[in-house]
Amino acid sequence: MGNNDYNSPAFKKLLDSLQQQSWELELIISGFAIFGLFTAYEPLRLEMLHAENEDSVYSFLVYLILHIASSILLFNLLLHVILRGLWIGALGLRYVSGDIEFEKLRYSERFTNYLKKRIVSFDRYIANLENYCSVLFAISFLLIFYVLALTMIILSIVLVANFIFDNDQLPDALSATLGTILIILIILGMLLTFIDFVTQGWLKRKKWISRLYFPVYWIFSFITLSFLYRPLVYNFLDNRFGKRLILLLVPIYIAILMVTTLEYRHSNYLEKDLESSSIFANKENYLDMLKDKEDFPGKLVIPAKVITEPYLNVFVPFSESLENRIFAYNDSLSPKIDRRGLTSSMEFSTSWDDEITSRRQKDSIRKVYLKTFNEIHSFRIDSLELDEEFILTTGINNTLGFETYLNISDLQQGKHILRLLRKRKIKDSVISQTDVILPFWYYKK
């Protein structure tokens, strides 16, 4: 037999030896992991907020998952290090003091009996700490797989929506029927899998239910990638101590979620995050106020609240929702294959001529794209209509967007209201609506 044969006595002896020394590996891995997580936590959060600000659904989903996974790992590993430190301290104290001698404490009989019943012995306390540390370390990574499983289910629903509901190559009736059936099956399977998880395998115990549930379990084992971590799950479920720890951690996570979402409201009507209007100025619309890393531009950005130049620089950040509005207004720009979302920067071209043709075609399409954007958008300052031409540019924090300059030399000094107007097609008619409202003050130098 080979050295890695799991049935051989030598391999079992090796595992027993590693098991006794696993706490050293746990602390080393926890230390490196906590350092890496602390380093990556803030950048991941900022990228998540940036993707949310740009309406980038796929990027937001990826960074949200990474942020949740890093938060779970960070909490569990910090708790593991604290408990492991307590365990090491208890071992050191046992070396000096031995077991607890209740008689030397000279407590009353009632307290002595109560403490003996609750504590039993110091060795038992050390053994319980060891069990908590080992199980907590393993469950930390298992929870990441659960987050991944939930992500795969959500991704399955998104793929059905993109490739079935929004598939122009399928007849409308077929795509609607097939898409609805698949969504219902995925949601039903998700609910059954969740019920089985919460009840710790109740659906697998009942004979006639298990027959119906098995095909669902088999399919969802691939969708949720559970075949990667299934042995770890069942090793927890057949251990009473592991099940108790899982039940203990769930309310702790819920409590942490509740605490982190708590906020104190100072007013019944006023909030800090209101959109800019004729009576409110949000800092996301003023360039000179976007100083922190967490400050992302709003739908419309001007240099400051107080303008002293005879012109007004205006920047409109790009977003996926903005592109959807352009496609809705000019359907000739809608591509046959939507290339938005996660993609690789690697490109393969069969010939140089094809690449040149592709570049020229893209340049001509960009001109139509920009022309459509200019046709859709216009401005109004108070009652004055303005329609300046935008150009493509990169602005705040290298954000892609559209920029133009408005002539305001004839404006009177004082407060003014800038409105970004947008045209919309509704059936055969075109209507104009106000997209953004923000106040500014104009004072000549």
Concise summary:
This protein folds into two domains: 9-166 and 229-260; 283-337 and 354-442, Immunoglobulin-like (Sandwich). The protein is built from 13 helices and eight strands. It has helices spanning 9-20, 22-53, 57-97, 102-105, 109-119, 122-165, 172-198, 202-205, 207-223, 230-237, 240-260, 320-329, 352-376, and strands at 306-307, 311-317, 377-381, 384-386, 391-394, 400-407, 414-426, 429-442.
Explain what the structure shows.
The chain has about 450 residues and is an alpha+beta fold. The protein folds into two domains: about 10-165 and about 230-260; about 285-335 and about 355-440, Sandwich (Immunoglobulin-like), CATH 2.60.40. The chain has 13 helices and eight strands. The chain has helices at about 10-20, 20-55, 55-95, 100-105, 110-120, 120-165, 170-200, 200-205, 205-225, 230-235, 240-260, 320-330, 350-375; strands spanning about 305, 310-315, 375-380, 385, 390-395, 400-405, 415-425, 430-440. A hairpin with a 2-residue loop joins strand 7 (about 415-425) and strand 8 (about 430-440). Helix 6 crosses helix 11. The protein is extended and about 95 Å long. About 10% of the residues are buried.
How much beta, percentage-wise?
Answer: 5-15%
Structural domain tally: 2
Tally of DSSP helical segments? 13
Radius of gyration: 31 Å
The overall pLDDT, averaged over residues, is 80
Portion in helices? 55-70%
Spatial gap, N to C terminus: 90 Å
Low-pLDDT residue intervals, each spanning 5 or more residues: 352-356
Q: What would you call the shape? A: extended
Please count the beta strands (DSSP E, at least 2 residues each).
8
Q: Structural class of the helices, strands and pairings?
A: alpha+beta
Major β-sheet, in short?
Answer: 5 strands, mixed
Q: What is the N-to-C order of secondary-structure elements (H for helix, E for strand)?
A: HHHHHHHHHHHEEHHEEEEEE
- Sheet with most strands: strand arrangement: 1-8-7-3-4
